[in-house]
Amino acid sequence: MDKPDRPGAEEWVPDRPTLPRLREAVQACHGCELYRDATQGVMGDGDPKAPLVLLGEQPGDREDQEGEPFVGPAGKLLDRALDDAGIDPSSVFRTNVVKHFRWSGTRGKQRIHKSPARGHVQACSPWLVAELDLVRPTGVVILGGTAGKAVYGSSFKVGESRGRAIDWPESFPVAHPPDWVLPTTHPSSVLRTDDRAAAYDELVADLKVAAERL
Fold this sequence. Notes:
single chain, Uracil-DNA Glycosylase, subunit E, five-stranded mixed β-sheet, two-stranded antiparallel ribbon, 7 strands, globular, deaminated base DNA N-glycosylase activity, Uracil-DNA_glycosylase-like
């Protein structure tokens, strides 16, 4: 497993953060080695008082270039799924557990995503804590296994709890824990699967559970 060669993001997180200050400060973060090959750090974006946070893995190729989360194909699918589930896409806050794009090789002009290692997730956790402490959401939708493991630990499996509300873990302390967490698959997995229509319907069904709790 690749490990960060630096101690983590703590020293780059502002003492009195705001969302704009976090977006500025993350550009200087050298908490792990991923900054070396990324275009920029990508913090969360959306309604700063959102009742719902959508938590994914890391920025992708488009996100790394544009500096915003969920602006690539998976993000567009997610917006459609939110709308179909009865959630206004403009009413949520989107972010990732890792703030720099990790990639390995290219396909044409597109850089190919590589999942972050556990050490990268751990190094980046101070940024996520700062975001959650500012937004103070009622609920968090966890998108995929990497995000789930970042919050619940290495034993987390999406399939064991997807589509149902669970408690925020005491092992991941934030100042104002959300009332509930709902795990589901990452929208990128919908794009990769053979039966995309069925996978999309399952994602929408999970998001409808979140909508009912808001």
